[in-house]
Amino acid sequence: MKQILLLILAAGVPWSCGQNEIQAPVNQVAQEEKKAERSREQQAWQLIQAGAQLIDVRSQAEYDAGHFDNVLLIAHDEILEGVTQHKIDKETPIVLYCKSGGRAERARMELENAGYIKVFNAGGYEAMLREKPQPKTP
């Protein structure tokens, strides 16, 4: 009985060492994948550069205080009326932003419930501004 117990314990020693040897590369891969992930704002800019319609769902006063070029202002609580008025197709990619992402999320959900299939919540204006790609200089 003691021999079987010793054999079982001895067999467990290499396993625990091997587990640590395996865990280190797994952690390294996870860290590299995290670095490769793009932020919500970076994803939004990629969509905008690919032709998505950018919509500011903030108030007129917030919009007047600062906004992006080529953006439509449609208040979050008027989003369906606004996209209909602007004749935005339900398959057109749409990127929404507000101050922090809350109103944009409500507008995203309302659009998706109405059948819009490519709607992205970019979050807040200030965060998007920080992540805005800079033009490449020659």
Task: Please describe what this structure looks like.
By secondary structure, the protein is an alpha/beta fold. The chain folds into two domains: 1-37; 40-131, 3-Layer(aba) Sandwich (Oxidized Rhodanese, domain 1), CATH 3.40.250.10. Helices cover 56% and strands 13% of the residues. The protein has six helices and four strands, in the order ααβαβαβαβα. The protein has helices at residues 2-36, 40-49, 60-65, 79-85, 102-113, 125-131; strands at residues 53-56, 71-73, 94-98, 119-124. It has a four-stranded parallel β-sheet, with helices on both faces. Helix 5 links the parallel strand 3 (94-98) and strand 4 (119-124). The longest helix has 35 residues, at 2-36. Mean pLDDT is 84; it is low at 5-9 and 13-17.
Strand content: 5-15%
Going by helix content, strand content and strand pairing, the class is: alpha/beta
Envelope shape: globular
Look at the structure and give the CATH class of the largest domain. Answer: Alpha Beta
User: Any idea what the CATH superfamily of the largest domain is called?
Assistant: Rhodanese-like domain
Low-confidence stretches: 5-9, 13-17
The average pLDDT score comes to 84
Spatial ordering of strands, largest sheet: 2-1-3-4
Range of helix content:
55-70%
